[in-house]
């Protein structure tokens, strides 16, 4: 047993703040100076659309004229302040360091990620012109070599508030997404996870937007693929997971969050209000102080893991190929990190789905443990674990909804490959990335920021009892309830009493309705055939539907929720028996 003092000292270790922010729950109470806030917001929006003095074309003309002036006899050099840092150095004839510290990758596996240093220059993904050792007099401004000066063309449809990209993009830069003027009661959070341990910047391994609608008392989470190829302002087209490190390493206003925020606003039209960021160690510490992570595994996954977290990861015999079966599982800190990062047998979109599952589970456990009432006392320890721009006042304003929010009012969005995201291999070095299908992505964003639809709200009025008749004792009823909650249903676990184990899941329909019925939704979500439905209309019913979960239960959905429930039964990747070695009740 830990001492009471250490528990209070470390519990916030992210549990409170991250559960509130990363669970995506919050209720912001506006300050008395609301009118000033509204005016400030309007002013920011006006600035956002105002074309500055130098557009992309004007900037190029200006720099050309400047170079001609500065190379004239007895010319006094004029400052070049609007170029990105690396471009300004090249234009001034200053030799850049030929060695660029790369952002550390998180492959290959298995390995421990070492502490990394913040990049000192903007990393590039295309070959640069070979550096020369020629010393240029201080009074002479040498124009950029042709290979480093991207020609201003219709490709650059960027706003005048940005400089011309110093590195030519391998695909055209898209037009800026329309700015979405959301309800004042909507607060957007950016949740970031770094693929480092012990500090450092690294890649942004997790990017999840959380939108809190205070008026509707609802929360939506959207996982943005880390390999999404987007325009990074003042840089070029590249993976979105580079934006934070570029902002940190190149003095962008607001640092890493500032550039990430601007990247999201340019490509998706979303204004982000706050952010929170953790690394691997922070995440595991949070799970440890929560007493483990209780998650509903609806898709069995398999990947390599250390037989024990304390073993040397550089020794091959210390690894095993492990399958985590479906069921309600309590994961240790190491296994929780394994769960949200595993990618051997699943896609990045599926990783995002599991990451959102973990965030919701953190919020649910923090509320069950009464941690929200301790925010004020635990705040100093929270900021030691979680990097954020939020203040204690900001967090306190989120607590009421964190306590009252129903799980059915939390929705998740991911998008799908071939619809929202298009697989693409970069022509320069063959990187496999996703290009956003702008029309479809912006439609997803609109749904993400919209209050719950009437259809979803109607599901909360449906009563559903769920019974586990699988005989496995793995909490299939809890898994089904959590699965239904993502679509707005409120389920209730009911003891089966004396029963005979069943193989197939059966739905009892006590409504007898044929139109406007939720039965079709339940069948799709739980993968139940018409032959497994028993209709027993009862005008005096106490519940609308009763779901009896059988041993063959498998409602696995890879990626998103609503947009994939018509995909049909998946090929099982694991069995209820599994090979957990401990009955599946306590993994890791």
Concise overview:
The protein is α/β, with parallel strands linked by helices. It has helices spanning 4-11, 15-22, 34-49, 56-70, 85-91, 243-249, 255-268, 280-289, 333-341, 348-368, 375-385, 392-396, 399-404, 438-449, 454-459, 476-485, 519-526; strands at residues 186-194, 204-213, 218-223, 229-232, 236-239, 274-278, 293-297, 301-306, 319-324, 327-331, 387-388, 410-413, 421-425, 432-436, 463-468, 490-493, 506-509, 533-535, 545-549. It has a six-stranded mixed β-sheet with strand order 11-6-1-2-3-12, sandwiched between helices.
Notes on the structure:
By secondary structure, this protein is of the alpha/beta class. The protein contains 17 helices and 19 strands. Among the domains are: 296 residues, LCP protein (Aminopeptidase, 3-Layer(aba) Sandwich); 98 residues, Alpha-Beta Plaits. The strands form 6 sheets. Strands 11-6-1-2-3-12 form a 6-stranded mixed beta sheet, sandwiched between helices. The protein has a 5-stranded mixed beta sheet with strand order 16-15-19-17-18, with helices on one face. It is globular and about 70 Å long. The chain starts with a helix and ends in a 39-residue tail after the last strand. The N terminus and C terminus are likely disordered.
Residue share in helices?
25-40%
Number of strands: 19
Distance between the termini: 20 Å
The CATH homologous superfamily of the domain at 4-30 and 184-452: LCP protein
What structural class do you assign from the helix and strand content? alpha/beta
Number of helices: 17
Main sheet attributes: strand count, strand direction, barrel closure = 6 strands, mixed
Which residues sit in consecutive blocks of at least 5 with pLDDT less than 50?
Answer: 1-38, 47-67, 69-155, 559-588
Query: From the 3D coordinates, which CATH architecture of the domain at 4-30 and 184-452 would you assign?
Result: 3-Layer(aba) Sandwich
**Estimated radius of gyration:** 26 Å
Strand content: 15-25%
Shape: globular
Oligomer class: single chain
Strand order of the largest sheet: 11-6-1-2-3-12
The CATH class label of the domain at 4-30 and 184-452 is Alpha Beta
Give the CATH topology of the domain at 4-30 and 184-452: Aminopeptidase
Overall pLDDT confidence: 74
């Amino acid at each position: 047993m830990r001492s009471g003092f250490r528990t209070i000292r470390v519990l916030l270790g992210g549990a409170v703040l991250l559960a509130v922010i990363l669970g995506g729950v919050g209720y912001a109470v506006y300050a008395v100076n609301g009118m000033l806030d509204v005016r400030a917001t309007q002013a920011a929006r006006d600035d956002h659309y105002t074309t500055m003095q130098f557009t992309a074309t004007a900037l190029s003309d200006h720099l050309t004229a400047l170079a001609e002036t500065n190379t004239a006899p007895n010319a006094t050099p004029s400052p070049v302040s609007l170029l990105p840092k690396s471009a300004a150095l090249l234009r001034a004839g200053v030799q850049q360091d030929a060695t660029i510290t790369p952002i550390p990758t998180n492959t290959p596996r298995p390995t421990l990620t070492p502490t990394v240093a913040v990049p000192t220059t903007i990393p590039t993904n295309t070959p640069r012109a070979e550096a020369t050792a020629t010393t240029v007099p201080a009074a002479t401004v040498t124009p950029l070599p042709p290979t480093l000066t991207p020609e201003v063309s219709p490709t650059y449809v960027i706003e005048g508030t940005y400089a011309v990209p110093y590195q030519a993009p391998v695909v055209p830069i898209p037009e800026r997404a329309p700015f979405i003027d959301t309800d004042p009661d909507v607060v957007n959070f950016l949740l970031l996870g770094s693929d480092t341990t012990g500090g450092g910047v690294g890649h942004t391994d997790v990017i999840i937007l959380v939108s809190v609608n205070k008026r509707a008392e609802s929360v939506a989470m959207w996982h943005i693929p880390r390999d999404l190829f987007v325009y990074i302002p003042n840089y070029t087209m590249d993976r979105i997971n580079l934006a934070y490190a570029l902002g940190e390493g190149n003095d962008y206003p607001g640092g890493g969050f500032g550039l990430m925020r601007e990247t999201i606003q340019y490509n998706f039209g979303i204004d982000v209000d706050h952010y929170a960021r953790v690394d691997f160690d922070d995440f595991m510490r949070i799970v440890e102080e929560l007493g483990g992570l209780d998650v509903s595994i609806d898709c069995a996954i398999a990947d390599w893991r250390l037989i024990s977290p304390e073993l040397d990861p550089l020794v091959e015999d210390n690894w095993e190929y492990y399958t985590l079966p479906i069921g309600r599982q309590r994961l240790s800190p190491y296994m929780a990190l394994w769960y949200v990062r595993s990618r051997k047998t699943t896609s990045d979109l599926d990783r995002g789905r599991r990451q959102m599952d973990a965030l919701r589970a953190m919020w649910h456990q923090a509320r069950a443990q009464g941690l929200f009432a301790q925010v004020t006392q635990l705040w100093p320890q929270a900021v030691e674990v979680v990097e954020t721009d939020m203040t204690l006042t900001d967090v306190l304003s989120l607590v009421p909804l964190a306590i009252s929010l129903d799980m059915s009012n939390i929705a998740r969005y991911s998008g799908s490959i071939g619809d929202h995201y298009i697989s693409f291999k970069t022509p320069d070095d063959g990187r496999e990335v996703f290009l956003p299908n702008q029309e479809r992505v912006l439609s997803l964003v609109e749904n993400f920021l919209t209050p719950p639809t009437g259809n979803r709200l109607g599901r909360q009025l449906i009563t559903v009892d769920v019974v586990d008749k699988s005989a496995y004792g793995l909490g299939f009823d809890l898994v089904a309830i959590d699965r239904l909650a993502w679509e707005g249903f409120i389920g209730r676990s009911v003891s089966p009493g004396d029963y005979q184990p069943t193989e197939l899941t059966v739905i009892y329909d006590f409504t007898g309705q044929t139109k406007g019925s939720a039965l079709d939704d339940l069948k799709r979500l739980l993968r139940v055939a018409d032959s497994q439905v028993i209709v027993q209309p009862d005008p005096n019913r106490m519940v609308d539907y009763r779901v009896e979960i059988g041993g063959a239960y498998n409602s696995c959905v890879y990626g998103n929720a609503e947009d994939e429930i018509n995909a049909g039964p998946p090929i099982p990747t694991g069995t209820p028996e599994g090979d957990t070695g401990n009955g599946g009740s306590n993994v890791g």
